[in-house]
């Protein structure tokens, strides 16, 4: 549940940056930004909550 919340928060924060500009579609750098936020948003809490 924590990981899902972190991913959704990261995507909602990065979406305005990815969709900024004159075009209503995601451009190359925007999709990389969203993918990076998705990856870090999942990996951070998943790694923190992993058993040791």
Rg for CA atoms: 13 Å
SS-derived structural category:
mainly alpha
Instruction: Write down the overall geometry.
Output: elongated
Number of helix segments?
2
How is the main sheet built? none
Order of helices and strands: HH
Mean pLDDT: 74
Distance between the termini: 19 Å
Helix content: over 70%
Number of strands: 0
Task: Please sum up the structure shown.
Helix content is 73%, strand content 0%.
Per-chain topology:
Elements: H1 2-18, H2 28-48
Helix pairs in contact: 1-2
What report would you give on this structure?
The chain is mainly α and 52 residues long. The protein is 73% helix and 0% strand. It has two helices and no strands. It has helices at 2-18, 28-48. Helix 1 runs antiparallel to helix 2. The mean pLDDT is 74.
Which features does this protein show?
52 residues, 73% helix, mainly alpha, elongated
């Amino acid at each position: 549940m924590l990981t899902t919340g972190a991913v959704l928060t990261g995507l909602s924060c990065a979406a305005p940056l990815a969709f900024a500009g004159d075009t209503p579609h995601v451009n190359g750098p925007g999709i990389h930004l969203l993918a990076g936020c998705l990856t870090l948003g999942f990996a951070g809490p998943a790694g923190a909550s992993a058993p040791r």
